[in-house]
Amino acid sequence: MTQHLAESLAQQLADVALEQTRFRNELTLVLPRERLLAALQAARAGGFSLLIDLTAVDRSPASPRFEVVYLLTSPPAPSRIRFKVRVEEGDAVVPTATAVWPAAGWLEREVFDLFGIRFEGHPDLKRILLPDDWEGHPLRKDFPLTEEPVEFIGHTPKVPSQIIPKSPPKP
Fold first, then answer.
1. What is the pTM of this model?
2. What is the distance between the alpha carbons of residues 86 and 84, in angstroms, rounded to a whole number?
3. Distance CA 69, CA 82 (A)
4. Comparing C-alpha atoms, which of 121, 93, 95 is closest to residue 35?
5. What pLDDT, on a 0 to 100 scale, did the predictor assign at position 147?
6. Quick one: pLDDT band at residue 1, thresholds 50, 70, 90?
7. What is the pLDDT at residue 25?
8. CB contact at 8 A, 1 and 78
9. Model pLDDT, residue 2
10. Which residue from 14, 33, 50, 60 puts its CA 20 to 30 A from 164's CA?
């Protein structure tokens, strides 16, 4: 895969990036939240025309707890680059990317719904998957797991906690 666009963008953002890593020939830049929007605009202007995905990772118990991840691609080259922004749980706010990619609004709503990360400036930040009265954010590691057995005619399968072996406690 040709990565000259990604390398060029990485050089352009070298003074901004907090970290730069390479894995399987894909480049990842960890950026400060304050410089994210400018970096996304530079990526778009530099040929990364598609926002393929926008998601989050709960890194608990690590600090900062959350990573917001942007996967960008340039189809003609082809080239890919990943941006990450790390935020603490008590200040889980990232600027919206809807000014750069309007479709980012849907992905940001999903991240808000499932992780509780807010996107400052988002035009319509509300739940997208879960009911409005849902409490909590189910993709956080501290979200309580619940189980409901599913009943079939003549058979009630075991719930996951009865099937999955318990791992020994960490020392």
1. 0.84
2. 7
3. 7
4. 95
5. 72
6. very low
7. 83
8. yes
9. 52
10. 60
For 80, how many CA atoms within 13 A lie in the half-sphere containing its CB? 12
Residues whose CB falls within 8 Å of the CB of residue 33, separated by 6 or more in sequence, listed in order: 85, 87, 93, 94, 95
- Residues of the chain with pLDDT > 90, as a percent, come to 73
CATH number at residue 102: 3.30.460.80
What is the domain range of residue 141? 4-163
Question: CA-CA distance, 150 to 31, in Å (whole number)?
Answer: 44
Angle between helices 4-12 and 36-45 (to 10 degrees): 140
Residue 152, exposed/middle/buried by CB under 10 A (0-12, 13-18, 19+)? exposed
Task: Report d(CA 139, CA 155) in Å as an integer.
Answer: 30
Number of folded domains in the chain? 1
71: confidence class by pLDDT, cuts 50, 70, 90? very high
Structure token pair of residue 79 = 């080239």
Which phi and psi angles does 39 have, rounded to 5°?
-65, -40
Place of tokens 């706010």: 93
The angle formed by the CA atoms of residues 108, 109 and 112, to the nearest 5 degrees, is 85
Q: Is residue 168 part of a domain?
A: no
Q: Given this model, what pLDDT does residue 171 score?
A: 64
